[in-house]
Amino acid sequence: MSVLAILFISLILSNFSNKTEAKTFSFKETTIDDIHKAFKQNKLTSRQLVEFYLNEIQRSNPILKGIIEVNPDALILADKADQERKSNASKSLSRLHGIPVLVKDNIATKDKLNTTAGSLALVGSIVPQDAGVVKKLRNVGAIILGKATMTEWAASRATNLPNGWNGRLGQALDPYVASADPSGSSTGSATSVAANMVAVALGTETAGSILSPSSANSVVGIKPTVGLTSRAGVIPISHRQDTVGPICRTVTDAVEVLDVIVGFDRDDFPATKKASIYIPHGGYRQFLKADGLRDKRLGISKDFFGSNDIKTYQQHFNTLR
Ligand SMILES: *[C@@H]1O[C@H](CO)[C@@H](O)[C@H](O)[C@H]1NC(C)=O
Ligand SMILES: *[C@@H]1O[C@H](CO)[C@@H](O)[C@H](O)[C@H]1NC(C)=O
């Protein structure tokens, strides 16, 4: 064998080993698709994922205050999911199976977690059952990791309440700029996803409470049409406006979660029945297009920005181009 051939083979080999190394699971900024693949390839367990998030929460949450309560059973649920994956290896489990989800503190969970809308008045109260959206998450094997903090009573208590503040936990911070307004009222759902304390969260919106904190913390929120997601077990403000939606790090993730939580719920009867007619057969995921923005024209409303902000914004806009 010539020296050249040996050199060639070793180059191929080193290239190969580099690639396999690069494929080990990376926890930071991970997505549902990454996690799902890593589960399938036995590179990751739900326990490892939950342990990672619990460590991040222990490290960051005392400062960021994004999570009001951590589920004491999260690791037990993770072990159960790992067990199910082992014994059902040949079956196709949901893409959310074994994935931790943080739910806003106004969404009922019938477990050890309190459901309080951030209010001391509701600590220790007992909900009759899981909220409709939580039932749907549990049905596909998702793990409820904890409760996200929020503006107390979703800002309906007073008009001058600071965004992301409540009497139980205090003030949540924007993980990118601590002095910035983290927005609300689904504050913790957005900040915790941005800070890698979880990949998937649920928020609720009556008027801007999903979209605004998602925007302020650079994550992706979807505000579904009222009735598309069940409000059963969600502390209400307006039955004509309240809706539950996903807050994630990517559009794809938010759509995957939307697919799981939409649909009929007899505990939110007329609204979910009416809206469920419009759910596309096969779900929303089929409409995701990697080049969906090609040839689209986007407008920038410069009036909303200061002169410094618009420079930064323009840079990012050029990236989109
Ligand atoms: C997976 O296996 C468990 C037993 O470990 C069983 O109870 C469960 O129904 C199975 N799930 C699916 C989706 O097959
Ligand atoms: C729920 O509230 C009770 C106080 O009534 C508290 O003892 C308990 O630790 C809370 N649950 C969690 C998971 O923090």
Write the layout of secondary structure elements.
Layout: H1 3-22, H2 32-40, H3 46-64, E1 67-70, H4 74-87, E2 100-104, H5 132-139, E3 143-148, E4 165-166, E5 170-171, H6 187-194, E6 200-205, H7 211-216, E7 220-221, E8 243-248, H8 251-261, H9 269-276, H10 307-320
Parallel strand pairs: 2-3, 2-6
Antiparallel strand pairs: 1-3, 4-5, 6-8, 7-8
Helix pairs in contact: 3-4
This protein binds 2-acetamido-2-deoxy-beta-D-glucopyranose (2 copies).
Residues 69, 72, 112-114, 123-124 line the site of one 2-acetamido-2-deoxy-beta-D-glucopyranose (NAG).
Task: Walk me through what this model shows.
- The protein is of the alpha/beta class.
- It has one domain (27-295): Amidase signature (AS) domain (Amidase signature (AS) enzymes, Alpha-Beta Complex).
- The protein has ten helices and eight strands.
- It has helices at residues 3-22, 32-40, 46-64, 74-87, 132-139, 187-194, 211-216, 251-261, 269-276, 307-320, and strands at 67-70, 100-104, 143-148, 165-166, 170-171, 200-205, 220-221, 243-248.
- A six-stranded mixed sheet has the order 1-3-2-6-8-7.
- Helix 3 packs antiparallel against helix 4 (74-87).
- The N and C termini lie far apart (50 Å).
- Mean pLDDT is 91; it is low at 1-22.
- The structure holds 2-acetamido-2-deoxy-beta-D-glucopyranose (2 copies).
- Residues 69, 72, 112-114, 123-124 line the site of one 2-acetamido-2-deoxy-beta-D-glucopyranose (NAG).
- Residues 1-22 form the signal peptide.
- InterPro entries: Amidase_dom, AS_sf.
- This is Amidase family protein.
